[in-house]
Write a structure and sequence with these properties.
The chain is 37% helix and 18% strand. It is of the alpha/beta class.
Length: 219
Amino acid sequence: MNADHQFTRGEIEAGRKLFAGDWQFVAAAATEASLPKMRGAEIAFAGRSNVGKSSLINALTGRKSLARTSRTPGRTQELIFFWNGAGLTLTDMPGYGYAAAAKSKIAAWTALIHAYLAGRASLARVYVLVDARHGLKDTDDQVFAALGAVAVSHQVVLTKSDEVTEAELARRIGEVEAALAKYPAAFPTVLATSAREGSGIEELRAAVARLLKERKASP
């Protein structure tokens, strides 16, 4: 495991406390005007439809149904905001890649997401979720380019890592980290998780806690 993925007991505990708060739904924004006011720090989760985004958010927060899961790809068509009551907002971004909608609707989503990314000073990082079974797709590269264009820090989190062998997972991590090298705004290392098995969840929580601590300490 990469040294950057190793966390102290203090960071693991800080991550646990950070996500153990009383998470509440704040808003569902379909337009730039309906975005909630910024407060505290914010992290966002993006990923292709059916990547397991809602399941991961539920696992992180310890809430079985905070984020709505669906068997229908592309069902979430808004930015969904949750607040932990202690300084952290979590944003569930619309899944991309499979949405069955008119081009005009997709264009509206795209404009909303770009406006959100470019104007959200409270946004500390976007976690881009990638299915460990399939790796990166062309649509992921487009998202990395868009994030880089607005200089938003982002990191890849592999989901469903329990569905591949250890050797396959190690190979996938290597492939993704090599691909990320060409994106300056991308965090160079990858975290692997399984919402079903719980693996990697406390490390991801600790990574967020470390990020917010560093952000708070920076001038």
